[in-house]
Amino acid sequence: MIAKLRGLLDSTAADSAVIDVNGVGYLVHASSKTLGALGPTGSPATLHIETQVREDAIQLFGFLAEDERDWFRLLLSVQGVGGRVALAILSVLSPAEVQHAIAAKDAASVARANGVGPKLAARIINELKDKAGTIATGPGIAAPISSPKGAVADTLSALANLGFRPVDASRAVAEAQAELGEGASVNELLRVALRKSAR
Fold first, then answer.
1. CA-based nearest residue to 114, from 14, 11, 28, 13
2. What is the CATH classification number for the domain harbouring 45?
3. Which residues have a Cβ under 8 Å from the Cβ of 112 and sit 6 or more positions away?
């Protein structure tokens, strides 16, 4: 199995890239976020690879970071989610945003991806809510809020009333709580969450 490719970017398409490794071109499917970060044609490229072997094809899926690959694998564990749909989700949401969307039960954010309807988005949230914590958040990223209470719940409600999407509110409040500590008041959490969301 191919786990990593290091070579030169030969070309890109809407949902894939060709990586030239010592004269051999590997067709790698990737999210739009990964494709956008690859750089110009001819530049060095290193991708973490997930290899899928089927009776009729071998497909390579590429990721700049291991956490994106880990989320891809986790998304594939949901019935009805194939490689293309998982990449579509990772094209609209970063791994941290997927984690926050699941923790916040924000199916609407997941449903923004092409090919993901409300029913599939709800199934993804439901099936992954207990598994989402098994993937480490990246450095500097606050862990999502899974069961909000007290000041945290009130702050989330206030942000929702201000028009924040649940995934954005959850991320901002998680970051505010990480900065202020457990005993922060609603006003303190709201002030820091608004500052962080305005970055």
1. 14
2. 2.40.50.140
3. 92, 93
Q: How many residues does the chain have?
A: 199
- Give helix 95-103 / helix 66-76 axis angle, nearest 10°: 50
- Measured between alpha carbons, how far is 134 from 90 in angstroms, rounded to an integer? 18
DSSP type of residue 134 = G
Question: What are the average pLDDT values for consecutive 10-residue runs of the chain, which has 199 residues?
Answer: 92 94 96 92 95 89 93 93 94 88 84 92 89 54 56 80 78 80 81 76
Contact 135, 98 (CB under 8 A): no
Q: Residue 113's closest CA among 177, 197, 32? A: 32
In a domain, 145, yes or no: no
Q: Which domain holds residue 13?
A: 4-63
Instruction: Identify whether residues 113 and 169 lie together within a single domain.
Output: no
Contact 63, 76 (CB under 8 A): no
* Side-chain half-sphere exposure of 66, counting CA atoms within 13 A: 7
Q: How many independent structural domains does the chain possess?
A: 3
Question: In this structure, is residue 175 part of a structural domain?
Answer: yes
Residues 20, 80, single domain; the answer is no
